[in-house]
Amino acid sequence: MVLESMTSPLKAQKTPYQMFFLGCLYSSIALFFSIWIFKEQSSLIMVFLTVLATIPFMYRTMRTEEKKDIEIKSETKLLKQHSRAITTLIFLFLGFVVALSFWYTVLPASYVENLFSVQIQTINNINARITGNLIQDFQLFMQLLSNNTKVLIFCILFAFFYGAGAIFILTWNASVIAAAIGTFFRNNISVYAQQLGFLKAAGYFHIFSLSLLRYLIHGIPEIIAYFIGGLAGGIISVAIVRHDVDDKEFKHILFDALDLFIIAILMLIFAALTEMYITPLFF
Predict the structure, then answer these.
(1) 3-class SS at 200?
(2) Rounded to the nearest 5 degrees, what angle is found at the Cα of 156, between the Cα atoms of 217 and 82?
(3) How confident is the model over 81-105, as a mean pLDDT?
(4) pTM for the whole thing?
């Protein structure tokens, strides 16, 4: 009751940055409980405990946004209101990523192997598939867009059937991104240490910043798309419970959800193009 009661959707939308610190807190507590109590299964238990702390906030957010669909008739104003909810969720996600990335880099290797074992295996599988298909740019683009669209559909379906269920997919993605960032950091900091040593502490933070940027440049648009899709699915889920499917309010909610889905697809296209052409320019 303590963690999930620390904020509310309306309060969070006024000061969205606080969700970053809550994301750090939720994921850090989940990480230590999972490694302490469920060491062998900690990589998945960590995700589960983080989701458990976040679900009440997510569900209240879905209900709040569904109420806005009823009260606000202008689609432009409605999308602006939804953007505030998306902003709070992005800060929450960034809190997950930064905290888990930090613990990945500072904890002993034996702990990291348990905490991120499934995530590391997932990254290896993704890299193996991508390496074997670098034939044409268009092929790679369609592969990236196809994979991201599947995740978007999962977010919508989880949110539809489980209300706040999309947060599970997004928390899992946060843990995978954190493992990728942590791996990139560990690989590069060892090279930096051999060449320059640790005379300058700034070098440590420089590599950590590069590790974050390496994945967040294209990762942020992807995650925004997933949150938008999850929000659309959650709004429909709440609306079905609270409204007759034949009334005008429900049809307005469906129209709004369709707009959100289209925006999410456009964001995924932008993210795939960024991953192909922008990120490689820097890394």
Answers:
(1) coil
(2) 65
(3) 89
(4) 0.81
